[in-house]
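Final report, results section. Input specification for complex C-07:
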Amino acid sequence: MATAFSATLPLHGSSSQENRLLLPSTRLPPPPPPSSFLGSTRSLPIRRLNHAHASRRSPVVAVQEIVKAKKPTNSLLITKEEGLVLYEDMILGRSFEDMCAQMYYRGKMFGFVHLYNGQEAVSTGFIKLLTQSDSVVSTYRDHVHALSKGVSARAVMSELFGKVTGCCRGQGGSMHMFSKEHNMLGGFAFIGEGIPVATGAAFTSKYKREVLKQDCDDVTVAFFGDGTCNNGQFYECLNMAALYKLPIIFVVENNLWAIGMSHLRSTSDPEIWKKGPAFGMPGVHVDGMDVLKVREVAKEAVARARRGEGPTLVECETYRFRGHSLADPDELRDAAEKAKYAARDPITALKKYLIENKLANEAELKSIEKKIDELVEEAVEFAEASPQPGRSQLLENVFADPKGFGIGPDGRYRCEDPKFTEGTAQV
Amino acid sequence: MWGILGRRAVVNGGISASSLRSRVRSSSVSARSYAAAGSKEMTVRDALNSAIDEEMSADPKVFVMGEEVGQYQGAYKITKGLLEKYGPERVYDTPITEAGFTGIGVGAAYAGLKPVVEFMTFNFSMQAIDHIINSAAKSNYMSAGQINVPIVFRGPNGAAAGVGAQHSQCYAAWYASVPGLKVLAPYSAEDARGLLKAAIRDPDPVVFLENELLYGESFPISEEALDSSFCLPIGKAKIEREGKDVTITTFSKMVGFALKAAEKLAEEGISAEVINLRSIRPLDRATINASVRKTSRLVTVEEGFPQHGVCAEICASVVEESFSYLDAPVERIAGADVPMPYAANLERLALPQVEDIVRAAKRACFRSK
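Structure output:
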């Protein structure tokens, strides 16, 4: 079973097949007749605009075409600054996860810890294009998504150690990284659970723009795996995101394995990108071990969402170098498969690209690596030194408003207001 | 407030039922429910509709989402007129995707909006229960207060008339066992208005359990309750009827049955105190216990399955806190421990009836075997 994948899966191998796109050009619905009801889209002028333009304009362009188009003028996909930012982010992800493994085996971290080694290109490729107000929703494999989004290494490490200085004060843990400041909306243990939540965040962005008339073009990126793509909620959300034209990007981190269940054994049609057009959105397949390719696709998908053209489904072919979690002995995966993907390590690939294209030299990259090593060491020291949560924290934060009388106009609990009387009509 | 009054209604065997009724009416704050002749009446349906309408017009972040809430005017006509008034951007007819649209509502609440998610019945919420519990109820705790979820899940709960096993379950006990959720169960029109408005304004996830058979019932409603800033406190029970011999606690449709039972008991000289729980979580243990300390006897009534039900929790609470005040074993009346049958006579047997409550109260008063 494990050895069969490289033979049967047509996605690997020739590069011409690697970045495929399917437009919903044959699947666009006819313009809505005045009396029919199409949910909220009826009142959207954007929908009519889309329909008028769709036939002559491709919303998402395959990466290869971009690369070809750029070749005559400038053969590089990134500038030096961008390259260093990407490199640093991926090195941070890798070092952090390696440190997590060390700390887990030393007993500082406990419970379920799922590491992201090998998949850094996907997180970096997408999240480094987002602003602070854009949202990211992830699964239990969320440490690196949180780091890429801007949550500090200290906060994430402390959270993993269960200390009060963690981003969720030790109450969430490895699988529940939340940060309101950075719009990291979790961290969900159930696969597929984050997808509707992400769709809701995208819904809010559109609602703010259209109903509250605010200037809002925030997008949401939902990360999830290949196993999730067989879950009902995924399809429910593909349907509604396309129906309401929500600014969301569904990113499938297809690492071919759901714990020990191979993607090919569990899926009738393993090509996940094809499921996008079935719901009326573009489906793109990209090499998830190459951060530059991911970034190019991400740019277009994010721009599409910001323009109000709706969702995109991006399938990133990637691989996790470690087991499903630190408790997984990882016996079912073939050594040859692991070796094949280890040779495509995204960090090594980017390093090679930067050096070959004279965007950076060894010394600069080494200094970044050293800086990140120090940062991660410091995060561990910080987490070690931080206190555990106090006993009283056990009962805190169950409710935003524990007394149930609501929060008054002055922002304090109504029941604490000395003028609080028995007739709530006055309060 | 709606707590216990200092004055006790004095009852002895000589006072007739009708004068007792009028004495209760004049003496208790809960007289609001038995308002003087000439005041307005309102159905629970209109009360809910007006509550949602007023909250939507007061706060543009409130929106309604659910199956058939828009063009169909609501499966039970609770959201009638809202689509015309607020437009399709604020009243969403969803596809039949409970998990999906509940999750979308939760995600929208994470990001700052205030969704009111309707389940056609709470039985369908089982397809979305992961989101109600894992992404809504637990989020404020998991994120250590960073992300609160100001969402309301509402819809009919419990048995209707002849709808069969899969449409008749009562979910009060399931949801009320989860920390992080607030669970409300209104009875009268005033309850419906006040509690729904409070729920929509509340910054936490609220499960609002209505009852299909109550939608068409009319209740008197006071001017105060019609005011657009009227809110009832979450977590406080209401004493619908003062009494001194036995405490009957219940919620939703069973409150009506309990009041009828109290009338029947009064004819036999037993003065029953009927408590309308209104809020299942947080449960108003203080009111219940104070009442039991006064009467020394407890009968709890609910429609749902008996094992691990709301009644079980109330009995445990009373036994833990007021054991030495009890003069009789606690009585528990719940639905039969079977999936709801379809045949009308069997359905009647599977649900508590007024006679069951009367019998239990008499047992508690040692008036019968």
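The longest strand of chain B covers residues 62-66. Chain B has a mean pLDDT of 89. This concludes the modelling results for the funded period.
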